[in-house]
Amino acid sequence: MYTDIIVGNKNIIIVGGGAIIILLVVAILSMLVLQKSNIPGAQQGSFYSTPAVNQAESEMNALLSEQNNSNESGVANLKDTGGMVTVTLNLTGYLVNVPQPAHIHTGVCPGVGAVKYPLNSVVNGKSVTVLGVSLAQLKQQLPLAINVHKSATDIATYTSCGSL
Prior knowledge:
Helix content is about 25%, strand content about 35%. By secondary structure, it is α+β, with helices and mostly antiparallel strands. The protein has two domains: about 1-40; about 50-164, Superoxide dismutase, copper/zinc binding domain (Immunoglobulin-like, Sandwich), CATH 2.60.40. Strands 1, 2, 3, 4, 5, 6, 7, 8 and 9 form a nine-stranded antiparallel β-sheet that branches. Strand 5 (about 100-105) and strand 6 (about 115-120) form a beta hairpin. The protein starts with a helix and ends with a strand.
């Protein structure tokens, strides 16, 4: 009878210890996965990001990083609908009621090249433009980047940039 109690307690300790080890392993793996997926599309340790492309290859997101101490950053969403790309920009830290020209440029951030596609100006952090090309056609023209300018009168000052 006394030995039954001791054997039972050993089994409880062994099972409990095993469960604790399993929980620790799951917690560590979860933390590692969360660290790698903290910012969709961002390269760890990189100021400028690479885009996140969904499985269907019909949508792409790019992070727009602040430039020139503007405090302006955000996300560009490019979605292919019927062979035409809708480019939606959502920014924070923008200039209130100031139209800000935006373009898709050749090259990558921060040193972009010539304007490839003009976009509708960002007003109060928002812009939506439909381009007459598909996302597949746009990808064939990479490297490209989206740049937002401070204003029409200060076009040389970039406020945010994101490589596609």
